[in-house]
Amino acid sequence: MTTTSTTLLGYGAAALTTLSFFPQAIKTLRSGDTSGISLRMYTLFTAGICCWLLYGLITRDGPLIAANAITLLPASVVLERKLQSLRRCKPSGRGSGKEFVGDASASTPARTP
Predict the structure, then answer these.
(1) pLDDT, tens digit, 9 for 90 and up, residues 24-63
(2) CA-wise closest residue to 25 among 37, 13, 40, 12
(3) What integer pLDDT is reported at residue 93 of this predicted model?
(4) Measured between alpha carbons, how far is 56 from 33 in angstroms, rounded to an integer?
(5) Is the pLDDT of residue 91 over 90?
(6) Are residues 73 and 50 in contact, defined by beta-carbon separation less than 8 angstroms?
């Protein structure tokens, strides 16, 4: 495969994966419902996108830079909305034991080996 073909494949893959995040961001903006979204997952995902963007900038990899710079927008919007919804739902009392109210992953018991 030539360098041009490889680069075009990279941009095509970047476009597909990047576009896949916009429907969730749009749905979240329109409905305001973030109850089905895991705070932990979106926090880790957004941090990963930032790391991939930094890596792309360091290596000067165009498809990585484009995909992650664009993906950062909808991922950040969803994460920001999730954080907003948690602030609104957070109980006023201390020591409730649920730090992430509304986060489905927070209700899953921790497993120890």
Answers:
(1) 889 888 998 998 889 999 999 999 999 999 999 999 998 8
(2) 37
(3) 53
(4) 33
(5) no
(6) no
Closest C-alpha to 28, from 105, 108, 84: 84
DSSP codes joined into one string, 25-59: HHHHHHH---TTS-HHHHHHHHHHHHHHHHHHHHH
Angle, alpha carbons 78-48-37 (nearest 5°): 30
Least Cα distance to 52 among 40, 30, 33, 70 occurs for 70
The Cα–Cα gap between 46 and 102 comes to: 19
Nearest CA among 95, 10, 96, 21 for reference residue 56:
10
Spatial distance between the Cα atoms of 52 and 108, rounded to a whole number of angstroms: 29
| Tokens at 48, concatenated | 């990963």
**Whole-structure pTM value:** 0.69
pLDDT digits (tens, 9 = 90+) for 95-112: 444 444 444 444 444 444
